[in-house]
Amino acid sequence: MNSIEMIAVERLFEEEGILAGDILSPTGVLLLPSGLDIGSLRSARPDAIELLQKHRIEKIPVKKHEPVTVEEFQRLVSSFTPPIARLNPLLSRVIAHQMGAIFTNIGNRELREEGVRSLFSIGGTLASEIRRIPQITLSLGEDAERKLDAAFHGVNVALVAGHIASRLFPLWPEFIRSVTIGGLFHDIGKAFILTSGYSADIIKMLRNDRITQTHPLLGEALLRDAGIRSQDILSFVRSHHEVWDGSGYPDGLTGESIPVGARIIAVANVFHNVLAEKGEGKKRSDQAISSLIASTLGRFDHFIVRALLASIGLYPPGSVVELSDGRSGVVLETRERNLIRPRILLMTGLRRQRELAPEIVDLRVNTSVSIRRAIDDFGAMPVPPLVAVGEGRTNVLFRKYRSPARLE
Ligand SMILES: [Fe+2]
Ligand SMILES: [Fe+2]
After folding, report:
1. Claim: this prediction has a pTM higher than 0.70
2. Residue 160: nearest ligand to its CA?
3. What's the distance, CA 344 to chain centroid?
4. How far is the CA of 70 from the centre of ligand 2 (A)?
């Protein structure tokens, strides 16, 4: 449905479309990258024509948006699958169950420390997966039976935090790994509190209570006892409830004195907490993002919040959305600069008036229309439980994933 045309440089701004290839100077310098929208180029680089002419470039390839036929449209809609890789759900399931086993065995020092060590090594695998997968929100999981919510929270925070870290610091694999593992273990200290007789709901109510506030310190101590020596990971777990303005705990750190990994985990944590709200208040990903923006103002590193928003894209390609005028369509592409005004392939009119050609609306150009809501959710997907090996022997997972040095 899109065709590529060679456009004379002097006519560039008369066209609509997207650059279909990198434009290089004769010496190989990148002048304009592939995928650039000509509309945005017009305002961002009004000197683009002069620039290209200076380098003696005469023609450039432009991918034109052409009206699609009804058949093409139907084929597109029926064959659509989001162009996004998912994390292997088995990996998140194994990690969540293993985390659940630590919670269960928190009173048994030997079992819990062994559990921490084996989970630590799987956390490294998770970090490699995060670096491989560009889009992580579709990989968030939730417990199909809702028994392991606290464990899945750890996995999901690790996914989001590792993802933010890989966007901000793509050249620091060690840092991405530490943030991912820190995210995995950030609330491990809660295991002591949860097993002390409080229910998860009470813990939520006690969010600001002194007992709950000890969990970052308990978590840090637990990891230290289990032999985790990474100062980064220990400090990320300790400081994940510090707040930019100094109102957090346990140390009341402010701004950039909060370790950057802890700041990342804090944003991932609030994002997943909003997303995971149950019952009436349960939110979809897009609503979670709105709440995230509202609740993070002044409390979190805005640079990190922005990185999360930009990486998710409020309405990633493939989302089905309803517009303010009642029509609905599929999001074709999102622009990093303007996340809430993507290009949309409209679906309305197709069923009733078959002769009507499907239409593409660019919300950046057509400002009278906006997105009212996303019809599909790109949030958590239910993850079925692991089949237990032997009755009541959840710690069998530890044996399976025990580090080779400790195998009998
Ligand atoms: Fe926490
Ligand atoms: Fe948390």
Report:
1. no
2. 2
3. 22
4. 48
Name the burial class of residue 10, with classes exposed (0-12), middle (13-18) and buried (19+) by CB atoms within 10 angstroms of its CB.
exposed
Ligand 2 centroid–CA 365 distance in Å is 40
- Looking up tokens 């997968």 gives 133
Domains for the chain: give ranges and CATH numbers. 2-66 (3.90.105), 89-313+381-406 (1.10.3210.10), 320-374 (no CATH)
Distance 41 CA to ligand 2 centre (A): 42
**Closest ligand relative to 216 C-alpha:** 1
Rounded Cα distance between 225 and 218, Å, is: 10
The winner for highest mean pLDDT among 117-126, 230-239, 386-395, 399-408 is 230-239
Residue 125 in this model has a pLDDT that exceeds 80: yes
- 155 C-beta neighbours (distance < 10 Å), count: 31
- Nearest partner of 138 among 81, 216, 97, judged by Cα: 81
CA of 273 to the centre of ligand 2 (A): 7
Question: Distance from the CA of 167 to the center of ligand 1, in angstroms?
Answer: 23
Residue 270: nearest ligand to its CA?
2
Amino acid identity, residue 167? Answer: R
Q: How far apart are CA 230 and CA 147, in angstroms?
A: 31
Structure tokens at 66: 């052409």
Structure tokens at 293: 């923006």
- Using the mean position of ligand 1's atoms as its centre, give its distance from the Cα of residue 226 in Å: 19
**Ligand 1 centroid vs 203 CA: distance in angstroms?**
11
The closest of 308, 304, 274 to 380, measured between CA atoms, is 274
355-368 pLDDT, tens digit per residue, is 445 677 888 788 78
- Indicate the residue type of 62: V
CA of 200 to the centre of ligand 2 (A): 12
- pLDDT tens, position by position, 262-296: 999 999 998 888 777 655 555 555 566 666 666 66
